[in-house]
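haha ok so turns out i had the wrong file open the whole time. this is the CORRECT one, sorry everyone. sequence first:
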Amino acid sequence: MKFGVVIFPGSNCDHDMVYLLKDILHQEVVELWHKDTDLQNCDMIILPGGFSYGDYLRSGAIASLSPIMESVKAFAKNGGYVLGVCNGFQVLCESGLLEGTLLANDNQKFVCKNQYIATQTTSTAFTQKATKGKALNVPIAHGEGRYFADSETIKRLNDEDRVLFRYCNQAGEIDTKYNPNGSVENIAGITNSTRNVFGMMPHPERCSDEELGNTDGRILFESLIASIGK
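then structure:
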């Protein structure tokens, strides 16, 4: 399977993602510069975390206007698979590839810690190998991670089983007291209506290497490879 990792000015999790895919999961990986327009026949495109363009204006707003994003949007509309992690999730929302937006954390502070999230659906290529309701311990690191959408959008996400993850405790219990940023309904990740674009604020690439003492995130990438790699 061939992955393309997009690099914007200010990306700082790009090499984490490349290392995981190439050295841990033994996949073909190419680095795609934000000024490129050729996606090099990749099977999946990943927008990594970081602070694209310094998070000026709004997180992900300027990156969404990069030349490569026109190609990514066309790729997604033709059924291509796209994953955005943290800043990448913000870029996807700013680009209109995912619904809603990411606002400043409700405590007005940057939050960096391990956080439990519960898988809400296994009916996607990204979560098919995960266990619904089981808590995964995945790091978060963001200042604007509060997912928000209007009530109609939230209802549609729920009705169509498009919420990927919700913040929870170790037992998988979902409650506002386990919400690190004030996201509506504890939402930590979503997919689009055609289930080929995925966005999440936590960083599964940071918990997929045995040397880090936590591999909870690896199952999500193994899901992608098992599904799309066919």
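Residues 60 and 90 are 5 Å apart (CA to CA).
again sry for the mixup
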